[in-house]
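stuck on whats below:

***
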Amino acid sequence: MSINRTMSARRAIATVVASLGLGTALLGTTLAPTAGAAEATASSVARSSMGIPGAVIIQSAAFPGKILCSTPADDSLLLKTVNTRDLYCQWLVVERADNTYTLYNPAKDQVMAYTGGDEGAVVMADYDRSQIAQEWSWGGQEDWGGRALQSFMDSGQNVDAKSRTGEGPTSGAIRTRGWRHGHQRELTWNTIAL
């Protein structure tokens, strides 16, 4: 990463940290610990020199190798194959004062948000401190190591990696699903530090 790009990334991160009301605290102390952190191995996640400082990828516990990504084209989120160089797949997990998290994507310069309702869309939105739809929390760690990524607006709705029409990973836009509706593994995720 060039010095200019590194400085630009640090300025962008500092700006979002300040806008989230975290003051001038060091970035490393404002990021939440990675929930359900998986042991990253050379075969599962290749280290990249192009990563955002302090970023994580959010990997499906049901579909290893599939990660949560924003898109440059619109406000939807998709599952993509792990590519640590894809900046749209890198997230800053910023802890809020109420033990919830804001998931900020520096490439998109937006945060992840829940649109509401059962099987509601998960989208990217401009940050608005007053929007509870932009707050997330992690469920307890399951036997298989993953944790549910829950909307704080409706903790019964979890980010879902499963296809609506089959048993594999979704190829469409990411939505939520209730914990008790179907298999739960598809509703769990691991964060992996880059």
